[in-house]
Amino acid sequence: MTSLVKAPAAEIKPISAPANAPKKKHRGAAHVGTYIFIILMLLYPVAHFCLMWFGVNITSILLTFKFPYRNNLTWVLTNWKGDSSTFFSTLFKNYANWGKSLQDTTSNFIYQNSLIYFVVSCLVTLPIAMFFSYFIFKKVWGSTFYKVIFFIPSILPLFILTTVYTYSLNQGGLISGLLDLMHVNYGSFFQNLFVLDESKKWLVWVFCVWAGIGYDVILLTAGMSRIPRDILESCKMDGVNPFKEFFKIIIPLTWPTVTTLFIFGMMSVFNVTFQPFFITGESASAATETIGMNIYFASQGSAKNVPATLGLICSLIGAPIICAVRWGLNKCFKNVGF
Predict the structure, then answer these.
(1) Quick one: angle between helices 202-225 and 105-118, nearest 10?
(2) Maximum average pLDDT range among 43-57, 134-148, 149-163, 175-189
(3) What is the mean predicted confidence (pLDDT) over 175-179?
(4) What is the full DSSP assignment across 139-152?
(5) Which pLDDT tens digit goes with each residue over 65-74?
(6) Is 306 exposed, middle or buried (0-12, 13-18, 19+ CB in 10 A)?
(7) Residue 311: exposure state from Cβ atoms within 10 A (0-12, 13-18, ≥19)
(8) More confident residue, 104 or 10
(9) Which burial class, exposed, middle or buried, applies to 265 when counting CB atoms under 10 A from its CB (0-12, 13-18, 19+)?
(10) Is pLDDT larger for residue 198 or for residue 125?
(11) Which of 121, 141, 107 lies closest to 215, judged by CA?
(12) Which among 194, 198, 129, 187 has a CA at the least distance from the CA of 168?
């Protein structure tokens, strides 16, 4: 009977690198250049944020606790007499003055004019833009031409747009010239069109709709283009008509874009500034003045505490409302990834 004897395992020797092999570079030294590059790239945006956002907002907040005294803005507590009962009334003097200004009829017109642009942006411009975006998305005849027409107002400066708009509606402009060619008797409608009063504010609203549709159409068509064609082909095979396709398929799948544009439209209550001024001029500023327009012109004077207080109050009121509306809109449809 033979016994099995295991052979001794061969001794494994480590393989040594050849003498002329290149040495590995130190990883820490290699990353130094990367770190320097990242720091340099972040330096400008961080400095811009600290200066243009943080610095500006902190300065604006501090201005709300200052008051003009002998042609200079001083802290409101410098006039405090030391009585504990008047501490808060002195500290928040600018806010108390804003509350008193609400009793002024002119101030109420400013807020009414601004709130109208919520209706103009969210309830008029956005639905029209969704309608035209759907037709462009479906590649109807002339869709490329419509893209150019809607895109041009989005890239031109505001002053040029308002100038073209006013000249087109003036006597002898584009609209009246076309009516003359068609022998339409329009009387003196275009002669006093821009001699604005309370009843002519609709001219600014029409301009905001015309100039705002292009921006909404660009974003909406981009959101619709992400929808897979397989879904639309399946709907077509199931006999879904365009009306149902728009409301049941297109809108739910592009709802995040619609929500974003709706929020932007809500912010137009505070952002509409130069549109009424460029169109109506200073003569009709009382009839068309907005919150943004009021803050801009009030900032030109020495009492910058007044526009700073108005801006901060609008932020404190508007931010929770916008966040609540955004939360509610996100609950309408489930976010679908594709």
Answers:
(1) 30
(2) 43-57
(3) 81
(4) T-TTHHHHHHHHHH
(5) 988 877 788 8
(6) buried
(7) buried
(8) 104
(9) buried
(10) 125
(11) 121
(12) 194
Helix extents (H) in 52-142: 56-63, 87-91, 93-101, 105-118, 126-137
Where in the chain are the domains?
98-152+197-330
Q: Quick check: helix, strand or coil at residue 167?
A: helix
Single out the residue of 116, 95, 99 nearest to residue 107, CA to CA: 99
Residues 270, 154: contact at Cβ < 8 Å? no
The structural architecture, per CATH, of the domain 98-152+197-330 is Orthogonal Bundle (1.10)
Compute CA 220 distance to the chain's CA centroid, rounded to the nearest angstrom.
15
Torsion, CA 322, CA 325, CA 329, CA 331, rounded to 10: 120
Q: Under a CB-based contact definition with an 8 Å cutoff, are residues 184 and 199 in contact?
A: no
pTM: 0.80
In the numeric block, the tokens 């959101």 are attached to: 223
Three-point CA angle 275, 278, 282, nearest 5°? 115
Q: Is a pLDDT exceeding 60 seen at residue 258? A: yes
Q: Name the token pair of 5.
A: 């004897």
- Phi first, then psi: give them for residue 251, nearest 5 degrees: -65, -50
What backbone torsions phi and psi does residue 67 show, to the nearest 5 degrees? -145, 140
AA identity, residue 179: L
Q: How far apart are CA 66 and CA 74, in angstroms?
A: 5
